Amino acid sequence: MTPPVQSGTEFTIDDADLSSAPLMAALTETTSGESWDSESVANILALPRSFGLIAHGAGQPLGFLLAQCAAGESEIINLVVAPAARRQGIGGALLAGAMARARGMAAQIMFLEVADDNAAARALYDRQGFAQVGRRPDYYRRDPVNYVDALILRCELITQGKISA
Ligand SMILES: CC(C)(COP(=O)(O)OP(=O)(O)OC[C@H]1O[C@@H](n2cnc3c(N)ncnc32)[C@H](O)[C@@H]1OP(=O)(O)O)[C@@H](O)C(=O)NCCC(=O)NCCS
């Protein structure tokens, strides 16, 4: 488990390479969502149009994001911040970094899926300009009898402006 991270701890965000896969997999075990093994993370990182970002602070990995881009569109595959490091801007910084990277890879739109009951993630995405464009009923299984919908969110990455005379 990640030890408590002091409020105001500085963090850096770097490109994740295959050697980061075990750290990223370990971070998925800190959340109540699905845990990923190192091989699954490495398989995504190895795809030609995918990328990962990893946040470090206080000498430890604090969060990561995995995304992919194709044909002008990008998709967030996973985003996790260690519970002890949340509400310090790391999730927002990873998402902003991914949006910038996707723009650099010629993506014009970013999509993601989020559980309807994930208030923290929904607030983060709302703040970064994502809007709901779809819903997949009963997409996530919470326990043997309870399911929750997935919301499909979308954000334009290219802001079109007009230069006035
Ligand atoms: C969602 C998650 C990535 C947010 O990471 P984070 O580092 O805590 O996010 P930030 O500190 O950058 O928060 C940015 C903004 O998002 C919103 N937000 C984040 N967590 C929130 C919460 N628990 N409740 C309400 N709003 C929240 C706030 O507007 C926040 O700004 P503020 O702190 O100035 O109020 C993190 O909670 C997490 O890893 N959750 C488990 C995994 C997960 O659900 N991933 C998303 C899958 S779609």
Describe it for me?
The protein has 4 helices and 7 strands; from the N terminus they run E-H-H-E-E-E-H-E-H-E-E. A 7-stranded mixed β-sheet has the order 1-2-3-4-5-7-6, with helices on both faces. The chain is globular, with a radius of gyration of 16 Å. Strand 6 and strand 7 form a beta hairpin. The longest helix has 15 residues, at 90-104. The chain has one domain: Gcn5-related N-acetyltransferase (GNAT) (Aminopeptidase), CATH 3.40.630. With 165 residues, it is of the alpha+beta class. The structure holds coenzyme A (COA). Coenzyme A (COA) binds next to strand 4, helix 3 and helix 4. Residues 31, 33, 79-81, 86-92, 114, 118-121, 123-124, 127 line the site of coenzyme A (COA).
Low-confidence stretches: none
Q: Tell me the radius of gyration.
A: 16 Å
Mean pLDDT value: 93
Largest sheet: 7 strands, mixed
N to C succession of SSEs: EHHEEEHEHEE
| End-to-end C-alpha gap | 57 Å
Q: Classify the beta-strand content into a percent band.
A: 35-45%
Count the beta strands.
Answer: 7
Shape: globular
Across the major sheet, the strand order is: 1-2-3-4-5-7-6
Specify the structural class.
alpha+beta
Question: What topology emerges from the helices and strands here?
Answer:
Blueprint: E1 11-15, H1 21-28, H2 38-45, E2 50-57, E3 60-70, E4 73-81, H3 90-104, E5 109-115, H4 119-127, E6 131-141, E7 147-156
Parallel strand pairs: 4-5
Antiparallel strand pairs: 1-2, 2-3, 3-4, 5-7, 6-7
Helix pairs in contact: 1-2
Bound molecules: coenzyme A.
Residues 31, 33, 79-81, 86-92, 114, 118-121, 123-124, 127 line the site of coenzyme A.
